[in-house]
Design a protein that fits this description.
Layout: H1 3-16, E1 26-28, E2 35-37, H2 38-43, H3 59-66, E3 72-74, H4 93-104, E4 110-117, E5 120-127, H5 138-154, E6 158-164, H6 172-191, E7 196-204, H7 206-209, E8 218-221, H8 232-239, H9 250-255, E9 261-262, H10 265-279
Helix pairs in contact: 5-6
The structure holds zinc ion.
């Protein structure tokens, strides 16, 4: 050992050592495989700057990105029965709920907030796909009803961001009952003469598509979003026909009249503000 090996060599090594790049700095786009800086991705609202792929986002992010100046008030939602059927598959339903709560920091697959969009009061309900696949149990039904009642109370439009695999099998028939319940929620808003706007995001399927997701006054969808009732493979096997290219995607549904607009996420807030302004032009003056 000498001064040269003990002192000089490590210094030189440090000088030329490749700096470790923390993995969490980068995100790989699942569509084009390009690497994107996390900060760039967040600034672009989780839309790939290379190929325009719209990544899935959380209910919390949806809400934060939708209101003016990111300013809003979240409302507390009613607590549903934790496990009405005492359901157990490979795990207990209560354990699955706990895991989902820890992962998403939400009580269930929906979050509701109110604030202003384009200066006008609005209520937003956003579904969380990371919470048991955004499945619709009693708590989601409760959340939609609470959002609808709040919209009526505030004489504000209701905007719902859907992201769901459909019914929550762990709640069986109670989950299916949320379809008519969620429809009642939309009726409350419509009967009050208020706009009900649906933003269909990837994926929106099953019982959610078969209920409140298809009853908006205006249907907006994000590019490339999968929207449908049954899976394409099931349909293909049933009708014994090859389905067309892009079947059940936002653009296909737009061409066929199910979706009114396909709007990029970066333009969504401005579009919502414009639509609300058009629908509520007389009653709701823009705040100064
Ligand atoms: Zn990409």
């Amino acid at each position: 050992m000498s001064w040269l090996t003990e002192f000089v060599r490590p210094k030189i090594r440090n000088l030329f050592a490749r700096r470790e790049v923390p993995e969490n700095l980068w995100h790989q786009c699942s569509a084009c495989q390009q690497m994107i800086f996390h900060t760039d991705l967040a600034a672009n609202l989780k839309v790939c700057p290379h190929c325009g792929h719209h990544m899935r986002v959380s209910a919390t992010e949806r809400i934060a990105w939708t209101f003016d100046d990111g300013s809003f008030t979240r409302i507390e939602l009613p607590k549903a029965h934790p496990d009405p059927l005492r359901f157990r598959d490979t795990k207990r339903y209560t354990d699955r709920l706990k895991e989902a709560r820890d992962k998403t920091h939400l009580d269930d697959a929906i979050a509701v907030a109110h604030g202003r969009i384009g200066g006008r009061q609005a209520v937003v309900a956003a579904m969380e796909f990371e919470f048991l696949g955004g499945s619709m149990g009693a708590a989601v039904g409760d959340g939609l009803l609470a959002a609808a009642r709040l919209a009526v109370l505030q004489e504000a439009p209701l905007i719902v961001f859907t992201a769901s695999g459909g019914a929550r099998m762990q709640e069986g028939a109670i989950s299916l009952m949320q379809m008519p319940r969620s429809i009642i929620a939309t009726r409350l808003v419509k009967e009050a003469g208020l706009p009900y706007i649906v933003v269909l995001t990837d994926p929106t399927t099953g019982g959610v598509t078969a209920s409140f997701a298809m009853l908006g006054d205006i249907h907006i969808a994000e590019p490339g979003a999968l929207i449908g009732f049954a899976g394409a493979r099931v349909i293909e096997q049933t009708v014994r026909e090859k389905l067309p290219e892009g079947f059940q995607r936002a653009e296909y549904l737009h061409e066929h009249g199910i979706v009114d607009m396909v709007v990029k996420r970066t333009e969504l807030k401005a579009t919502l503000a414009r639509v609300i302004g058009l629908l509520r032009v007389k009653e709701m003056p823009v705040a100064a």
